[in-house]
Amino acid sequence: MIKYILKCDKNHEFESWFSNSAEFEKLCKKKLLECIYCSSRSITKSIMSPMINGTKKSNMDLINLNENFKKERDSLKQLRKYIENNFEFVGKDFSRKVREIYYDKNTKKTIYGTTTEEERAELQEEGIELLSIPWVNKDN
Ligand SMILES: [Zn+2]
Questions:
Q1: Of 51, 57, 65, nearest to 128 (Cα)?
Q2: How many angstroms separate the alpha carbon of residue 121 from the centre of ligand 1?
Q3: Are 83 and 129 within one domain?
Q4: Number of folded domains that form the chain
Q5: What is the structure's pLDDT at 41?
Q6: Cβ distance 78 to 69 under 8 Å?
Q7: Residue 133 falls within a domain, yes or no?
Q8: Could you give the angle at the alpha carbon of 116 between the alpha carbons of 32 and 113, nearest 5°?
Q9: Are residues 84 and 132 in the same domain?
Q10: What is the DSSP string of 28-91?
């Protein structure tokens, strides 16, 4: 089972379980996914690089940035730049580093990196908050 964070066109976010990513794609294509708040059928999955932040406030800032930027590709590049300038990149070590930070309450590090869907699901089960943003390629 995979848990995805889904989002409708009115920016409602909710979690949903799928047996695998193919099932999600299938349901999404057939418009069988529905927002639990407003019943919108325009549902997207939060793809990409999850992040964590030590403080709620910064998390909110990022969520707001994410909201503002996600419509435009150019803005997404700016968001990417912002994250690259303000966050420590840990790459594939993300899920391990995130746990270190999460369980050490004195650490207020902000990191970003990549996880597999399995790692991500595990982190969510442990109650570790992650934020995903669309990660655009700078070079095209
Ligand atoms: Zn909605």
A1: 51
A2: 23
A3: yes
A4: 2
A5: 92
A6: yes
A7: yes
A8: 115
A9: yes
A10: HHTT----TTT--S-EEE--SEEEE-SSHHHHHHHHHHHHHHTT-HHHHHHHHHHHHHHSEEEE
Tokens of 13: 């976010």
Verdict on whether the full-model pTM lies above 0.85: no
Query: 90 C-alpha to center of ligand 1: Å?
Result: 33
34 falls within a domain: yes
* Residue 93 within any structural domain of the chain: yes
Answer whether residue 38 is part of any domain.
Answer: yes
9 C-alpha to ligand 1 centroid (Å):
6
Instruction: Evaluate the CA torsion angle 36, 37, 40, 46 in order and state its sign.
Output: negative
- State the DSSP string of 37-50: TT--S-EEE--SEE
Cα-to-centroid distance, 101 and ligand 1 (Å): 32
In tens digits, what is the pLDDT along the chain, a chain of 140 residues? Answer: 677 888 899 988 888 888 887 888 889 889 899 999 999 999 988 654 445 545 555 555 666 666 665 556 677 777 788 888 888 888 888 888 888 887 876 766 778 888 887 888 888 888 877 777 766 665 54
Residue range of the domain that includes 22: 2-45
Domain co-membership, 41 together with 86:
no
Hunting for tokens 């990409």 — which residue is that?
48
